[in-house]
Amino acid sequence: MIDVRAYFVEQEPALKQFARKYAGQGVDVVPLAQDWASRRYFRVVGAPLSYVLMQAVPDHIPTATMGHKLSTFIGVGRMLNARGIHAPNIIAMDEDNGFVLLEDFGDVTLGKALEQGADETEIYKKATDVLIKMRDAMNADDLYGFIKYKDSYIRKGRQRIVDWYIPATRFSKNPDDLVESYNAAWEEVASALSPPPIGFIHGDFHLQNLMLLKHGDVGVLDFQDAMVGPVTYDLGNLLENIRTDVPHDIYDAMMARYAMDDVARAWFRVMATQFHCRILGQVLRLAILSGKHDLMQYMPRIQNYIKNALNDPVLKPLSQWFLGERVDLDAAVFDVDRIKPFIRDDAF
């Protein structure tokens, strides 16, 4: 594994050279953001047109961030555009060094538009309509070769609530069989349901990854986690996002807009709750391993999502597991330094 920050600093001269080669010798790059993975973004300024430059750790260099391959970003983006879903067009790329020059979608995410006073119902309609188009526009050929959700690190991540959250609340290491019994509860949930509707999964679908473009169109970002699996995963991410509460009337309206039958609704609950179980543990994991303590502000909302979900009869086996293990979903204070010794070496 490499030190990602040090690697990015080392590559800065090559990054600027790449920008000047394809956007003009007089351009400069201005940092925009760094996300939860091994990527950074810059705006290229000083050219006739504005571009965004994405810097990623190249696929051939191993990092601690699972998924997020640059080649996947490139391939999925092209597929989305071919299906009428607006991903950033690629202007130039250097995969060996991890540089991609992209169409600039501007600065207004759907989340920012909401903060600036946009109608909340209309914002969620726009986002939900992108999901409907993703669901309906993709065919089996489009999804051939995609990793299956059941085989993905994202699905495996549902155990992070066990690996990271439970020892943080008990101040003791987990016994050897705890993850096994937890996963068995999930399998019992799934075995009682009809097969889910299968299709394209974006993998990180929320208002901050959707851009408001000219003429009201929506641009889609951060799709490199794309998988094939139960399509309701993304709707769960949108409507039960860790950053904000969706008003009940809008929540219900978007569920109806997506037009789910009883089977899809049951799998919505399953997929949304697996997402919450992953993220609750992941927030602690990032705080402990990477010092990202700011993410812990979202923990109460995630805890509430899980508590509410466990009241759904669809999740009865999982609810019984949580009850039997006396998992504390109301824990409020987490001392990262105190927690660390209780995390098992094999924690995911």
What's this, in brief?
With 348 residues, this protein is α+β, with helices and mostly antiparallel strands.
What do you see in this structure?
- The model has no long low-confidence stretch (mean pLDDT 93).
- The strands form three sheets. This protein has a five-stranded antiparallel sheet. A two-stranded antiparallel ribbon has the order 6-9.
- The longest helix is centred in the last third of the chain and has 29 residues.
- It is 46% helix and 13% strand.
- 36% of the residues are buried.
- The chain folds into two domains: 100 residues, Phosphorylase Kinase, domain 1; 233 residues, Aminoglycoside phosphotransferase (APH), C-terminal lobe (Aminoglycoside 3'-phosphotransferase, Chain: A, domain 2).
- Helix 9 runs antiparallel to helix 14 and helix 12 packs antiparallel against helix 13.
- The protein is built from 15 helices and nine strands.
- It has 348 residues and is of the alpha+beta class.
- The two termini are 16 Å apart.
Terminal-residue CA separation: 16 Å
What characterizes the major β-sheet? 5 strands, antiparallel
Helix content: 40-55%
Structural class: alpha+beta
Rg calculated over all Cα atoms: 21 Å
Tell me the overall shape.
Answer: globular
Question: What is the fold-level CATH name, i.e. the topology of the largest domain?
Answer: Aminoglycoside 3'-phosphotransferase, Chain: A, domain 2
* Highest-level CATH class of the largest domain: Alpha Beta
Q: What are the low-pLDDT stretches, counting only 5+ consecutive residues below 50?
A: none
Main sheet: strand order: 1-2-3-5-4
CATH superfamily of the largest domain: Aminoglycoside phosphotransferase (APH), C-terminal lobe
How many domains make up the 3D coordinates?
2
What is the string of SSEs from the N terminus onward? Answer: HHEEEHEEHHHHHHEEEEHHHHHH
How many beta-strand segments? 9
Note the total helix count: 15
| Overall pLDDT level | 93
Which percent band covers the strand fraction? 5-15%
CATH architecture descriptor text of the largest domain: Alpha-Beta Complex
